[in-house]
Design brief:
The chain has about 90 residues and is α+β, with helices and mostly antiparallel strands. It has two helices and three strands.
């Protein structure tokens, strides 16, 4: 994606590379022991961000449903059918 920022930084004290992928508000990190492994981590980091984006979307939808409350058409249908059953008896 155009807004992805893929970078790495060598940590000499621990002798590893920290690989970072940033997309919008998300940032994921991985650690590799050799520079030739840096590019191999990108698909894994992209998958992690996509999973986070999907989870956030599901949470936003659930929160919106919670705020909306019960839907009025299904509530009124079940209430009217109960009322008509009661009147017939």
């Amino acid at each position: 994606m155009a807004d992805d920022q893929f970078s790495y930084e060598y940590e000499p004290l621990c002798d590893y590379y920290q690989v970072t992928l940033r997309r919008g508000p998300y940032a994921v990190h991985a650690f590799v022991s050799s520079s030739h492994l840096i590019d191999e981590k990108r698909p894994q980091l992209e998958a992690a961000i996509e999973q986070m984006e999907q989870q956030d979307l599901r949470l936003k939808e659930a929160f919106a449903d919670c705020l909306a409350g019960p839907s009025s058409p299904s509530t009124s249908t079940s209430t009217s059918s109960v009322a008509s059953d009661t009147a017939a008896a």
